[in-house]
Amino acid sequence: MTGPTKPPHAGFPPAQTVATGLVVAIVGFFSSFPIVLQGVYAMGATDAQAASALMMAAIAMGLTAIGLALWFRAPISVAWSTPGAALLAVLAVPEGGFAVAIGAFVFAGLLCLLAGLWRPIGRFAANIPPALAQAMLAGVLLPICLAPARALPEIPQFVIPIFLAWLLAGWWNRLAAVPGAVAMTAVLVAWWGGVPDVAMTGLITVPVWTTPQFTLASAISIGVPLFIVTMATQNIPGIAILRSNGFAPPAGSMLAGVGAASIISAPFGAHSTCLAAITSAMCAGEESHADPALRFWSAVVAGVGYCLFGLFAGLVTAFAALAPPMVVASLAGLALMAVLANAAQAAFTQAADRDAAVVTLLITASGITLFGIGSPVWGLLAGAVVYLVRRAPH
Known about the structure:
There is one protein chain. This protein is mainly alpha-helical. The chain has one domain (about 15-390). Helices cover about 70% and strands about 5% of the residues. The protein contains 20 helices and four strands. Strands 1-2 form a two-stranded antiparallel sheet. Strand 3 and strand 4 (about 375) form a beta hairpin. Helix 3 packs antiparallel against helix 16 and helix 7 packs across helix 12. The N and C termini lie far apart (about 40 Å). Residues about 1-10 have low confidence and may be disordered. Keywords: Membrane, Transmembrane, Transmembrane helix. One of its GO terms (cellular component) is plasma membrane.
């Protein structure tokens, strides 16, 4: 299979690809920024570090998308790892704080870079049974998705309108569900606590450097699960979607590209840059443009949009800080419900793997920590034992 030929002229992007790219940028950023904030706050980030993390995550995926799409003339859509951010949100703050978490982000990025340059690592990630990887993701997401129900008795005046906005916007267009909920949240927060003081926050976000600190415990309990969940739920599906639409840029080069972007942006707080899945289908499909050779422009325009949104991440973070407790967590839970449903369905599709999947899910969702290693690793290990025993010959 070969990718599309280069377009005969550089020119300007067609209007249809511009429209698709803008939709991708809006959906990609506003559908998941609450989860990114939840994740970095859970790792011990300050408000300034959280704003920097959101900014650099957006700019990293924007610049990487622009570079890969232009280099390979393919609609390579790039994202931050939403499942990875959800993973961080349920882990305990590492001993040593955010600097240690950043060291784990660098380690996960290094594993992704090596997976692109050295095939055995990529094959290892690809050979993890899909049922276990999806069950681990479902276990990570379950506590987060319970947040709206837990918040309902405390702040019904927020949860009910946000839920209705999510429901009605999703009824109109599934991709509009989370942006609709975000818009309702913004209205409610503005009514409740006002709007950020631009004079204090600044219009353009200021990046904050945090020197990474590396520990074996954080590499195992944060870095390895972050790499696995990102590879299994973002990078590998992203490559498959491109190929299913007739594009075949080198997988190793794409993995190396997003891995390098992760390493470079991590000291500024960004947790993981990866290939996109849902937005990749939007850029690579016919809705982008009838001519496959021009679809790469959608990924380029989306990348520009991500960079622009990233510049104003400080305002987004300051606005979220004005919300009452549990509001942003509730919004994140609603945003991840569809991801949870898909992960659970994929985990339990094969009857032979259901025991292993349920063990993985339950241990991961338990939130236990043993020997400094978090529940996702133990869930995956326990599930692997059950998987091997169930498949062993009698």
